[in-house]
Structure formats: C-alpha cells, structure tokens
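Researcher: I'm comparing several assemblies side by side, and this is the next one on my list. It has 533 residues spread over two chains. Same procedure as the others: predict the full complex and return the structure.
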Amino acid sequence: MKSDFDLLVFLKYVVIALALIIIIFPIVSIFVNSFRLNRDIIVNPIPFSSIEFTLRNYEIIFFDPASKITKGLVNSLIVVPSSVLLVSIFALFSGYGLLRFSFHRVIKAIMLGLILLTRILPGVSAAVPYFVIAKMLNVYDTHLILILVYFAKNLPFAIFMMMSFFEEVPKEVEESASIDGASFLNLFFKVVVPLTLPGLLATAIFVYIFCWNEYLFAFFLTQEKAITLPIAVSWYIGEFAIEWGELNASAVISTIPVIILTLSIQKYLIRGLTLGAIKG
Amino acid sequence: MSFSNVVFEVEGVKYNFIGLENYKKILYDELFSRSLNVTLLFSIVCVIVELILGLVLALAVIGIRGSMVLRTIFVMGMMLPPVTVALIWRTLLSSDFGIVNYILTLLGFMPVNWLGDSIMAVVSIIIVDIWHWTGFVFLIIFAGLVSLPIEPFEAAKVDGASSWQTFKFITLPLMRSTLLVAALFRMIDILQAFPEIWLLTYGGPSFATTILNILVYLISFQWFNWGYASAVSLILLFLSIALAILNWRISKR
C-alpha cells in the first residue's frame, strides 16, 4: 500500500515537470530569440546557443520607418482600453440589474439566450455581416468599428462575470443599508460597488486580455489605418523571408502585458475562464 | 444574405434573391465536404486528447503544494495571443531549423515537413491546438475535482480501495458531466479556431487544413462569393448552437 502511494506521487511530479517544460520552454524561447541575430536563429535552433545577444531587433521594430509595430501598438492602446471601459460600465449596471430586478421569466430567458448566443457565434459568421455593415456605414478600418465590435463580443462575458460577483454580496448587507434609509442609487454606489470592486477590476482585466489578443475581427475589419498589434505582428509572418528576430521581438512586446495581467488575476482564473462551463 | 447572390458595387451592396441555390451548392461542393471532414477529425481528436491530458494534469496537480502557481502556468498557454502561439509553433516546427526536427534527427529519425505536407499539417494544427487549449480543459476539470463531495472518497479509503479503483469507480463517474461539458465547450471553441491555423498553414497545403471557419473566410474575403459564404457560415452557426444546446442540457442535470 505504502509503495503504491509513493509511486503515484513520483508519477505526479513527473507529469508536472513534463508539462512545465512543454509549456514554458516555447514561451522562454521567443524571449531569448528576440535578442538573437537572424542568422543565429536560422543556423542553430537551440535558443541559448548564441554567444552574441543584441537589442537590434527591438531597435528595428520601434524605429525603422517601415515597421508597423509602433502603429499597431498605438492603435491597440486606443482601441482596447476604450472597449474595456465601455464594457465595464455596461456590465456593472446590467449585471446588477439582471440579477436583482425581477423581470418576467420569458423576457429574462430571451435576454440571457441572446447574450449566450454571442458567446457561441463563430467569429467568421459574425465577421462577414460586420464587414458588410462597416462598409455600408463607412467605418471600415477605423477605431470605432473595432471598439464597437469588441464591446459587443465581450459584454456578455462581462455581464455574467459581474453577476457572479454581485451574487456574492450578502443580501443582509443590502437589506440593512436600505433599512437605514439609503436610496437605491446610494445603496448601489456606496455599498454594492465598493464590495465588488475587485471583481470589476478582474473582469476588466479579462476583457483587456481578450481584446488585446483578438485577431479575427481586427483581421477582417482593418486594413491599414486601424491595424492592431496582433495584426502588425502577423505581418512579419508569411512574407517571403520571415525576419525571425524582429518577429520574435514584436511577439514579446504583445505577450508581456498578457503574462503580467494573467499573473495579476491568478485568483480569478478559474471563475473567469470556466464561466458558464461549471454553472452552465 | 445566404439566399442571395451578393454583389458589392460602387453605389452599395446589391442582393439578388436566388432562393436555396447557395444551399444546393453546398451539397455538391467537394471542398465543403472535405472541409467538414477535416473539421470533424480535427475537433474530435483535439477534444479527446485534451480531455485525457487535462484530466491527467488535474489529477497530478490536485493536492500538491503550490498548486495555484502551477495552475496559472498551465493556463498561461491559453492566455497568450494566438499570433504568439502561431509564431512559437512556426519556429518549433520549421522544417529547416525547427527544434522539433532537430530533436528528431538527434534521435535518428527523418526530419518531418510539418507544415508543408498535407497529412502532417493536420497533425501540426492538432498539436498546436492541444498545446494552446489543454490548459482550459485542465482548469475546468480541476475546478470540478475540487468541488467533488469528500464522503465517497473517505468511504472508499475505509473499504481499502486502491487508487486506481477509487479513480475508476468514484472520480470518473462523478466527473462525467464535467468532462462532457468541457468537451462540448472545446468543440464550440474549436469550430471558431482561426488565427492559429490561418497563420500556421493558411488552410493549406491544398486545403488540407481548411476547417469550415477558414473556408468561410476564403469564400468571402478571397473569392468574394458573399452569399455562399453566408450559407456556409450559417451551417457553422447551427452546428455551434446544436452543441451549445446539448451542453446546456447536460450541465442542467
């Protein structure tokens, strides 16, 4: 019995070690490669084999006039925070509303159904009509269309997320506040919002990551002026000669914020990522 | 749109109603049926492998100190920008200087033309999807395992059941609906996979990795057959909705 148990623990650590290597090695290798010269990358696949490390790749992507990375970065820094702000505000109010106010069952079901539909809608199915609409309204390749699309895409997630946080506010707290004579708005802003602020922040960070990573819609709806960072990065791939060093450097630029933000919401990862998966 | 022949003109969009023509075309479209096959193969293999790996990982991590940090690292893959994931795997799988081929040759195997060969390209996108998304399955299963009731396990211990017996007769049955839900979620999301595959293979070589999603893109934005693209994307949508309804019914139980 005892030896059987030990073997199991040993196996556990083997599995974990293997998984860690498989997950971390590729991520580390893009960081290392971003400091290597192009020819070194092509000659030797082992990331740590270079003797010479350089900042040249970063220099090129930021200061070369042909580079689109700066433009993509600026666009992303306009589009993503705007979408996040919009989504957060709407989710804050509608999440609370959907949870606390009593709607007719059918209306509520329809609303939740519509919200869910946007979650399962395949991106390309949505992208074709979005593209047509964008062309018709003359907003193709602008920040506006991306902000609106990201807003629509992420609002359902944010609403559900906020509902789960509002649910955790003890009913007694709200009741005692309203007995003390707090008006509804007072109750909401002075009691409920402060209690759910960490949740709101986590929701916002999730939405930020999703928008920041988003490729499909940016790919369909922008061309030149409004390209976001992922699009700019992807332009390094698929040309006749891939500039591996610059490609890696620009991928690092777009990846670092995600890693930092993910670490900052460790506590909420399960809730955010399995939302809907556990509760259905 | 799916019932029309859509034309973009200078004055705007023009719809010519053609009834069910677009849907009739799907039935005879060899590319569509091929794409459907690839999509099904791709999604089913991915889901099965991800479920197994996710379950193994979750069982390995649970009850170990520092499981929060491990959890975050395992999930990191799915949080990365798809563009980065595509880049990582383009580098790793490159036929000239990819580290995967490098290791293969060290071990005495022939180097593989991962992204250029029509069979290996499908294998490649499966590998990439597994790398990218096993973390998600892992997280769902992990959360499910944590919330399992403790009594059956205690009873099993008292009865002297082995770890394997406990797993087979208690953990698995209790986790059945969680596993199913995870599988369906992955199915829905795989139907939406686009950037990784697009940036790795562009749906090629010769449409070998053109899953339905990419087919819609090709038909619409490359071949400008908007009406037909809408019809195909509606089929994709119905597939997703069917999966979602199934999902909802299972998780309600």
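Model: For your comparison table: Strands of chain B lie at 4-9, 12-17.
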